[in-house]
Write a structure and sequence with these properties.
- By secondary structure, the chain is mainly alpha-helical.
- It contains 13 helices and 2 strands.
- Strands 1-2 form a two-stranded antiparallel sheet.
- The longest helix has 24 residues, at 208-231.
C-alpha cells in the first residue's frame, strides 16, 4: 500500500484544525488507513507512514482529544494511540502548566476511560493531569466524572508530587480557579513545607568522589545514546560533522564562497529534569498493580 493516502490525509488534517466535524472524519480515516497498512506490512512501517499525521494531531488539542478518546478505548487502535501519545509527550515534556482539553463533544464514558488509561501509560503529566481536570470542566453535572477526576488527581499527587505542584502553581494554568486544582495544590504545598522543616543529615549527602563517579557514568550514558542516534540518523548521510571542544565560548569556522570566516558562540549549560513515578522507584510491584487498575478504568 503506497503512503500517498497518508500524505493527502496529512494535508486535510493540517487545514481542518478548527472544524470539529472534519476532525472526527479525519481521525476515523486515519485509523482505517493505519489498519489497512498494518495488514500489508509491519507495525513499524505503518507507524512510519502515519508519523506526519500523528505529529500534526499531537499539536492540535481538539484533534488530540478526539483521537485519544477514540483510539485508546478501542483495542484495535491501541498501538496508534500509544504512538500519538508519545508524540504529544515529547511536545509537552517541558510544559509549565497542565493542558486543557475540551471534552464536551466526546462521549463521557469514553473520556473517563481514556483519562484512566492515559495515567496508566505514564505520559507527560501535563497531558494526563490536564485531561483529568478537564473532565470536571467539560462535565460539570456528572458525579462519575468528578469522582474519577478526584482519584486521578490524587494519583498525580502520589506519583508526581513535584511536577504536579509546578503544573498547578503556574500563573498560566487554565485550572487556577478550579476547586479541585486549588485543593490539590494546597495539599502539595503543605507537604513541601513539611519536608523543608525536616532535619537534613549530612551522612546522606553524596561525597565529592561519588559525585564525580556519577557524572562520569552519566557522560558515558550520553555518549552511548549519541552513538546510537548517529547510527540511525539520516542527516549523517549528507550533513558534514565537526567536532570541537568549548568552555564558555567556542569558535566555529564556516565557508563563504572562497573565504573561511570564523565566529564565536557563547555556550550555556542545559539540563532537563523529569520526575519518574514514585511507585516505580519505591515499589515496582504496586506500580504494576496501579497501572493495571487504571487501564481497567479504576474498576476491580
Amino acid at each position: 500500500m503506497p503512503t500517498d493516502p497518508f500524505y493527502e490525509l496529512y494535508r486535510k488534517i493540517a487545514s481542518a484544525k478548527s472544524q470539529p466535524a472534519a476532525c472526527h472524519l479525519n481521525v476515523i480515516e486515519l485509523a482505517e488507513l493505519f489498519r489497512d497498512k498494518n495488514r500489508a506490512s509491519s507495525p513499524e512501517e505503518s507507524l512510519a507512514a502515519a508519523s506526519s499525521c500523528l505529529h500534526e494531531l499531537s499539536r492540535a488539542p481538539a484533534y488530540f482529544a478526539i483521537a485519544i478518546s477514540s483510539w485508546l478505548t478501542n483495542d484495535e487502535d491501541i498501538g496508534l494511540a500509544k504512538a500519538l501519545l508519545h508524540e504529544a509527550s515529547v511536545n509537552y515534556l517541558q510544559a509549565q502548566a497542565a493542558k486543557s482539553y475540551d471534552l464536551a463533544a466526546i462521549d463521557e464514558s469514553r473520556a473517563i476511560l481514556a483519562a484512566c488509561r492515559l495515567c496508566a501509560l505514564n505520559p507527560s503529566p501535563a497531558i494526563s493531569l490536564g485531561w483529568a481536570l478537564s473532565l470536571v470542566v467539560s462535565y460539570p453535572a456528572s458525579t462519575a466524572a468528578l469522582n474519577v477526576a478526584q482519584e486521578l488527581v490524587q494519583h498525580h499527587i502520589n506519583e508526581y508530587p513535584m511536577t504536579t505542584r509546578i503544573l498547578l502553581a503556574s500563573q498560566t494554568s487554565p485550572f487556577g480557579s478550579h476547586d479541585l486544582a486549588i485543593r490539590a495544590l494546597t495539599i502539595l504545598e503543605q507537604e513541601q513545607d513539611h519536608l523543608k522543616q525536616l532535619p537534613r543529615l549530612r551522612e546522606f549527602a553524596m561525597p565529592p568522589e561519588m559525585r564525580l563517579t556519577f557524572y562520569s557514568l552519566k557522560r558515558n550514558e550520553n555518549r552511548d545514546i549519541q552513538r546510537h542516534s548517529e547510527k540511525s540518523s539520516i542527516f549523517s548521510q549528507f550533513v558534514t560533522k565537526q567536532h570541537f571542544k568549548y568552555a564558555h565560548k567556542t569558535a566555529v569556522e564556516f565557508v563563504v564562497g572562497d573565504e573561511i570566516q570564523e565566529t564565536s558562540l557563547a555556550m550555556a549549560s542545559f539540563q532537563l529534569a523529569i520526575e519518574l513515578p514514585q511507585s516505580e522507584l519505591t515499589d515496582p510491584i504496586s506500580g504494576v498493580r496501579i497501572r493495571s487498575k487504571l487501564w481497567r478504568g479504576l474498576t476491580g
